[in-house]
Amino acid sequence: ENIVLFTPYIFLETQKYSLHFECSSSLFLQSHTCGELRPAHVGEEVTLWLDFSGLAKMYLKKALCDLHPESVIRVKGTARLQPDGQENKEMPTGEVEVLAESVEILNVCHQLPCEIKDFVKYNLRLRSQLVMKIRDDLCYVHGGLWMLKTPTLFKRTPWGAKKFVVPSREPGQFYSLPQSLQQFKQHLMVAVIDRYFQLARCYRDEGSKPDRQPEFTQGLVQYAWPVLVGSNNLLLLLRFVGQIKIGCNSLLGSVLYTQCIRTFFISIQKHLKSKDQEPLKKTARSQFNQVCLPHVLKNHAAFTVRSRPLLGKAQASLVFHFLWVVDFPLFLPKEDDPGQLDSAHHPFTAPLPEDTHLLYSQSHSVHGQHYDLVLNRCEIGGGFILILKASEQQYVLEIILKDDPSLLSHLLEALDSGAHPHGGIAWGLDHLVSIIVGTPSIRDVIAFPKSFRGNDLMSHAPDFVSENQRKPYHISVKWPADGEGNQEK
C-alpha cells in the first residue's frame, strides 16, 4: 500500500495549555489534541481529529487523498519518533508522528461556500483572549469595576447617528436600538454605582466603510468622581494592551486639539499637489474660520492623505503609539445651518471649568471636557466628563442646541436626584482589534460580519416580511411602483 504524508489543519498555537481526555467513552472523539503530542507520548495509542491546538504529522493510506479538503476524519494510531533528520525543531510537535491504524470518515465536505481564511480564525481567537483579559483586569485587578448589561430596546432621540427602529404592538410606537451607552451609564452613576464597565452591542444605520458596520461592539469604563485624563489615571483601557506586548507605554502624552489641527494642517501642505490644495483654498475663501477648520480637513485633506496606500504599510511597520487629544470645542456650527450650533461630541459633555461662564454668553468659545484616544493616527476611543446639573443640561439642550428637552426628561430628573461628578471612556473594540492584528477592515475581526451594504450573507437578511406578519405591528409598506407614484400594501 502506498503511504503518503497527511497534515491536519495548521493553526497558530495561541494556548499555553493542552486538553487531554482520560475517558475512553464513545462520547469523546479524541484522546489527545493535535498540538499536545511530545516524545513522552511515544508508544501510546492516540485518537485525533482536527482541532485548534496545533499541527500533528500522520501517515495515512493514499486512498484518503480523494477526500475533499475540510472533510472530517477521526484517526487512531500509535505515536512514534520521527526518523533521524526529519524532525522539525520549529514545531512543538515536530519530533513525533502518528502511524495511522484506522481512519473513520465522520463527514464529507462536498463544496465550500467560501474560502477558508486562517487569519480570520487567528483574529477571532485573539479577540476572545483580549476580551477575557479586559474583564479579568477591570473586575479583579484594577479597582473592582462592576460588569453590567443595559437594554437593547430603547427610546429614539434626535442626536447622533441614524438609528434602527423596532416596531412594537402599540400602533405608531417604536423602540430604537441604542447607538451608544450614553444615557444608561449616566443613570447608573446617579444610582450610586460608582464604577462599572460594559462590552455591549451598539447599532448605527450608517454608510459602508472599512471601519464601520451596522452593529458593532463598544467598550466602556465609567467612574464617579473621575480624575481628568491629563494625569493618566483613566488608562484602564490600555493596561491590558501593554500585557499582550504590543509596545505601548503605561503613561501617554497629550496634545491640545488646536495644536493637533495646526500641526496636521502644516504637515500635509508639502505633500499636497496643487489640484489637492484647491478645494481647501476654495472653502477657506468662502467660510474659513477656526471653528469650521475640522470640517475642511475632514472632507478634503484627510481624504487625500488616507488615499495613499503606502502610508498604511509604513504605519504598520511602526511600534504602536498612543496619544490623548484634549480641549476640543464644545460646539461647532451645524453643517446645514452655520448660524446654529451643534454638539462637537454629544450634548451631555461638560464644559471646562474655566469656560463654564462663557456657556451663557459666548457659547461658540467654550471648550469641553472631552478627549480622544488616538492609536497610530487612528481614533479608537473617546472620553468625557459629563454635565452634572439638570439646569445646565437643560440650558444646553433648549437654548444652545434648540432641541426639545422633554425628550430627555428622564435624564433631567435623574440629574436632579443628586448626581455626583462622573465620566469615563468608550472605545470601539472591533476597531482596536483590527489595528492590533493589522487588518484594514473590522469585518476581519467580527464573527458573522455584515457586508458593505449591511447584508447578512449567510441568512440573506434583511428580508421581506409578509403582510400578515406586519399586521400585529400596524405597519404598511409603500413599494416603488413601475409607473408613477407609489402603491401601498
UniProtKB/TrEMBL annotation:
Keyword field: Aminoacyl-tRNA synthetase, ATP-binding, Ligase, Nucleotide-binding, Protein biosynthesis
Aminoacyl-tRNA synthetase class II (D/K/N) domain location: 119-218, 307-450
A Pfam entry, by short name: tRNA-synt_2
GO cellular component: mitochondrion
SUPFAM superfamilies: Class II aaRS and biotin synthetases (SSF55681), Nucleic acid-binding proteins (SSF50249)
Family matches, as InterPro entries: Aa-tRNA-synt_II, aa-tRNA-synth_II/BPL/LPL, Asp/Asn-tRNA-synth_IIb, NA-bd_OB-fold
GO biological process, one term: aspartyl-tRNA aminoacylation
Domain of life: Eukaryota
GO molecular function (one): ATP binding
Protein name, as recorded: Aspartyl-tRNA synthetase 2, mitochondrial
Gene transcribed to yield this protein: DARS2
